[in-house]
TrEMBL record:
Cited CDD domains: PBP2_CrgA_like
MF term (GO), any: sequence-specific DNA binding
Gene: dmlR_34
Pfam families tied to this protein: HTH_1, LysR_substrate
PROSITE patterns documented for this protein: HTH_LYSR
Family according to the record: Belongs to the LysR transcriptional regulatory family.
Tagged with keyword Repeat: no
Official protein name in the record: HTH-type transcriptional regulator DmlR
Keyword terms of this UniProt record: DNA-binding, Transcription, Transcription regulation
Domain HTH lysR-type, chain residue ranges per copy: 1-58
Entry keyword Transcription regulation: yes
Source organism: Paraburkholderia fynbosensis
Superkingdom, taxonomy of origin: Bacteria
Listed GO biological process terms: DNA-templated transcription
Length: 297
């Protein structure tokens, strides 16, 4: 039995396509295609009818999947029983997360997890850059944005809105932009380049080059400067939600918001995942962005 190939088969059926299955599993499209081809050779059966646009499961595929799905669930349950599920989790877990998001969202949940599992230790590594999980011994990472193809496993847990904002006083003095192109008339907070950079919006807004007199490599510093009236900022809404609630800043160009940023949990593929890490993944998956439609905040 090749458990990996069976998981790929079920992911394709659940997600509707090879591409979506690869994204869900944190694998490359090529590796997913190879797994299905190998499974078809082993079973001497055609599992999918392939066209240039989609794959359609055969009747034999659907029947086979219906039989193996509960079997795989039972295997997982049996494995957990074998290691005695009642035994307390033990050991260390290293988590990586973006600085602001990790402090605001991940850290409180880690504290809650530790209160439940008294023999677990957690190190939370906060960094803006994506750390190599294998080279840094990171067990689990929280990542914002689209994921490139890799051997990492991934679970999307929600999305984050991105907003453009400034103080009411700034807009009273300089005017409210009605279209992203009008940002050229304003000072914008810069992150990437000392003189100007490009902000992207939805299809109605396009890609707009903005400029400004304040620049910082820190998103929090840019937000603080915008909140002090230095100009217009752009950020995931969670970074400025308290300022919005207090009325210190207001959003503009809401109808031009870009697609929300996906939030994923990622961990290394190709190796067994300790039960303490699997438990934390399940814990964070349902709590990281709770109570929001499709995890949007």
């Amino acid at each position: 039995m090749n458990r990996d190939e069976y998981e790929v088969l079920l992911a394709i059926l659940d997600e509707g396509s090879l591409t979506a299955a690869a994204r869900s599993l944190g694998r490359t499209l090529q590796s997913v295609s190879r797994a299905i081809a190998a499974l078809e050779r082993d079973l001497n059966a055609t599992l999918f009818h392939r066209t240039t646009r989609r794959v359609q499961p055969t009747a034999a595929c659907l029947k086979f999947a219906a039989r193996i799905r509960p079997a795989l669930v039972e295997i997982d349950a049996a494995r957990d029983e074998l290691v005695d599920h009642a035994t307390q989790l033990r050991g260390s877990i290293r988590i990586a997360a973006p600085t602001a998001f990790g402090a605001d969202f991940v850290s409180p949940l880690v504290a809650e997890f530790l209160s439940i599992h008294e023999n677990v230790r957690v190190e939370l590594v906060l960094a803006e850059q994506h750390l190599d999980l294998t080279k840094t011994d990171i067990d689990l990472a929280v990542r914002l944005g689209q994921l490139p193809d890799s051997t990492l496993r991934a679970k999307q847990v929600g999305t984050l809105r991105r907003v453009v904002f400034g103080t009411p006083e700034y807009f009273a003095s300089h005017g409210y932009p009605a279209h992203p192109s009008e940002l050229a008339l304003h000072d914008c907070m810069l992150r990437q380049h000392p003189l100007r950079e490009t902000w992207t919006f939805n299809h109605a807004g396009g890609a707009i080059e903005v400029a400004g007199r304040f620049r910082s490599t820190s998103a929090l510093a840019c937000n603080a400067a915008a909140a002090a009236g230095a100009g217009i900022g752009r950020a995931p809404i969670f970074q400025v939600q308290k300022l919005l609630d207090a009325g210190q800043v207001v959003t503009v160009l809401d109808s031009f918001e870009p697609e929300p940023v996906p939030v994923h949990l990622v961990w290394a593929g190709g190796r067994s995942v300790p039960r303490r890490v699997r438990t934390l993944i399940d814990f964070l998956a349902v709590r990281l962005l709770p109570g929001k439609a499709e995890g949007v905040i």
